[in-house]
Design goal:
Layout (H helix, E strand, L loop, with lengths): L2 H4 E12 L2 E12 L3 E5 L6 H8 L7 E6 L2 E2 L5 H7 L1 E3 L12 H9 L7 H5 L3 H20 L15 H13 L5 E5 L7 H18 L2 E5 L3 H7 L2 E6 L2 E6 L1 H5 L2 H8 L9
Parallel strand pairs: 3-8, 3-9, 6-7, 7-8
Antiparallel strand pairs: 1-2, 1-4, 4-5, 9-10
Helix pairs in contact: 4-6, 4-7
Bound molecules: adenosine-5'-triphosphate and magnesium ion (MG).
Magnesium ion binds next to helix 2.
Amino acid sequence: MSQENENILEVQGLTKRFGGLAAVSEVDFKVRKGGIIGLIGPNGAGKTTIFNLVTGVYKVSEGTVNFEGKSITDLEPYSIADMGVTRTFQNIRLFKNLSVFDNVFTACHLSATYSLPEAILRLPRFRREEKLLKEKAQGLLEIVGLQDRADVVASNLPYGLQRRLEIVRALALDPRLLLLDEPAAGMNPDETEQLMRLIADVRDRFKLSVLVIEHHMDLVMRLCERIVVLNFGIKLAEGSPDDIRGDARVVEAYLGAPAPAGGK
Ligand SMILES: Nc1ncnc2c1ncn2[C@@H]1O[C@H](COP(=O)(O)OP(=O)(O)OP(=O)(O)O)[C@@H](O)[C@H]1O
Ligand SMILES: [Mg+2]
């Protein structure tokens, strides 16, 4: 297998300027198929901007993003999502007034193939597919341990479980690459530990690749096989958790300072 085929995501020379500010500057990194890669760095380092560039929310100023060997650099967000790249957000985005089940069920519908007339007339194909989507939503809730809360309104879930629900919604879109933006933000150590197991479990179960932004260093160091460190939009270092822990520049720019308690 060629080197290219082993990587699900290849980012090269990625640059994003906002006016005079280079939020991301000539960043290169790769995500191996099946890999879990960490993206870390101080507040404002450009981490979320990289997610916005990879998912097409922001237009790239310079550089390329390849997904499964094809350029997605100039594609629209819905095409990129369709190809199998989905994300969660630093600030939770759920349908707060819908139940846990409906949050997942609505996400499952984005992969529905029946037509509008078939849905309105409730034709057999619609009914068959609705049944399958319901089973899919139920199955996903079971995998992440939310099946007992299926009827709870999302905003009434404890914070840690809302973050978990956001991950299930992303999984409902059948991703091959999952981007998680501070999934453990606001979680206590126990919830963080459980989340780490969940991410490793869904990676194995769904044969995913994962790119995760996190400030909880314990989670990043134990979960990720490689870590990319950003500082002021520039890649400061890249390597295994041990490489990163021992890198004097990273310690000075980031690890030396006390980690924030959670996201914003
Ligand atoms: N739409 C925008 N317009 C202007 N500047 C932006 C925009 N989005 C991000 N920036 C700037 O780009 C820089 C990087 O922001 P980004 O949100 O990517 O940081 P981050 O590493 O995710 O930080 P945090 O850990 O606080 O979430 C910041 O200086 C930010 O103010
Ligand atoms: Mg961010």
